[in-house]
Specification:
Blueprint (H helix, E strand, L loop, with lengths): L1 H33 L4 H10 L2 H19 L5 H4 L4 H16 L7 H20 L6 H21 L4 H37 L2 H29 L9 H36 L2
Length: 271
């Protein structure tokens, strides 16, 4: 009888751990699928971070500095910017990167042409004669403006997100239901193996531990993934911060609900 009880206890502990592992994998995978691997979360983070507006301001500031560096009016280059076309180019480039397509250089080249024409008009208006030095300086400014425009109309994270999310989606679609079925099997066996008091102790312990894992995942996303970028990358900094920190709330809520459920089970056990 003693050996039988010991065997039942050992099996219950193993099953409780198995239930915890399966539930943890299922809930964390589902949470990740709803957040860090979700295109909806990606788009929401892009909008909430005001990425386009901040990048537009950063580009205008960089162009002003470039103009001042060459003793030109600070708005000479930035005055060629138009927010509507800038945002359209940015969104087009993000879609291209997310779909694995090559980003077109045409918008940046068209902007560079505008800058070149503006510089030529400015030099002509101010009576600056033509020389190899002047032409070289104008070409240098134009190339810099084109490079800046290309840099600020992209979201480097988009291509990485597209690669990871497409791979993760397939894994999650399999992992969540499989883990749910395994958790259900462990739950049924535990119920059959233990009496009312014992089964609720093991089940509540597994559910509570799963809740703690979800809280830990939320803490990791909100605290541990703390990136710091240069002030020129304010838009990117805001996007990355919102993308990961915004995802943490799903895990916080799931963790709290699981722990609450575990307490309810344990409370019912004491009735």
């Amino acid at each position: 009888m003693r050996d039988k009880n010991l065997m039942r206890t050992v099996m219950s502990i193993v099953l409780a751990f198995f239930l915890f592992a399966a539930l943890s994998l299922a809930t964390v995978a589902a949470g990740a699928g709803l957040t860090v691997f979700s295109s909806g979360h990606f788009t929401g983070s892009f909008e909430d971070s005001i990425y386009a507006e901040k990048n537009f301001d950063s580009l205008a500031s960089a162009l002003k500095e470039e103009a001042e560096l060459h003793s030109m009016p600070e708005t000479l280059l930035s005055g060629q910017l138009e927010y509507g076309s800038f945002r359209e180019t940015l969104e087009t480039n993000i879609r291209a990167a997310a779909e694995g397509r090559e980003i077109s250089d045409q918008p940046a080249e068209e902007f560079a042409l505008q800058v070149k024409n503006t510089i030529d008009e400015y030099l002509k208006k101010n009576g600056v004669g033509s020389s190899s030095y002047i032409e070289s300086a104008a070409d240098e400014i134009t190339a810099k403006a084109e490079s800046l425009y290309s840099d600020y109309t992209t979201l480097p994270f988009a291509a990485y997100f597209a690669d990871i999310s497409s791979s993760a989606a397939g894994v999650i679609r399999i992992m969540v239901p499989v883990c749910a079925v395994l958790a259900l099997i462990a739950l049924v066996v535990l119920i059959k193996l233990q009496d009312s008091s014992g089964r609720k102790f093991y089940i509540s312990s597994s559910v509570c531990a799963t809740g703690i894992v979800n809280l830990a995942a939320g803490y990791f996303l909100s605290r541990m993934l703390d990136f710091t970028f240069a002030k020129e990358l304010a838009g990117y900094d805001s996007f990355i911060d919102g993308f990961f920190h915004g995802a943490s709330s799903v895990f916080w809520i799931c963790g709290i609900l699981l722990i609450a459920a575990a307490l309810v089970i344990k409370f019912e056990r004491n009735q």
